[in-house]
Amino acid sequence: MNATTSDKIRSGGISGWNVALGVWVLISPFVMGYRQNTNFLWNNVIIGIAIALIALLRNMATGPRAVYSWLNVVLGIWLIISPFALRFTGNALALWNNIIVGIIVTAIAASNVPSSEHVVLPSEAR
């Protein structure tokens, strides 16, 4: 197994956590009982699907994968600010769920950026 393959396996496992977190964001309004606010409900459904799908695409990509990681960084940041932007700060459970999950998604995606880039060393270019 070469370095590129081991990097892909290692970072793929980490991206798997973002797949699971995306699914959680998708179902959290139903599980935690804050589906009455349709704006917040649809925000979490759409963002949850996007996070999971982007993490899956990142795992399956054969070429450069940094763009997928950066997209999930942006979505993670949106999760953090969405309760404030959508004026849903009155529900502490929903607020802290999105903030905590957003921080974790952002951290995982940001940690995957360096492993997404394969630098061709002069010895490999031959």
Radius of gyration, rounded?
17 Å
If helices are DSSP runs of H or I spanning 4 or more residues, what is the number of helices? 4
Overall number of strands = 0
For the terminal residues, how far apart are their CA atoms?
19 Å
Strand percent estimate = under 5%
- Indicate how many domains the architecture comprises: 1
Q: Can you describe this structure?
A:
With 126 residues, this protein is mainly α. It has one domain. The chain contains four helices and no strands. The chain has helices spanning 3-31, 38-60, 66-85, 92-116. α1 packs antiparallel against α2 (38-60), α1 (3-31) runs antiparallel to α4 (92-116) and α2 packs antiparallel against α3 (66-85). Residues 1-11 have low confidence and may be disordered.
Notable characteristics:
126 residues; mainly alpha; 77% helix; disordered N terminus
Break the fold down into its secondary structure elements and pairings.
Layout: H1 3-31, H2 38-60, H3 66-85, H4 92-116
Provide a concise account of the structure shown.
The chain has 126 residues and is mostly helical.
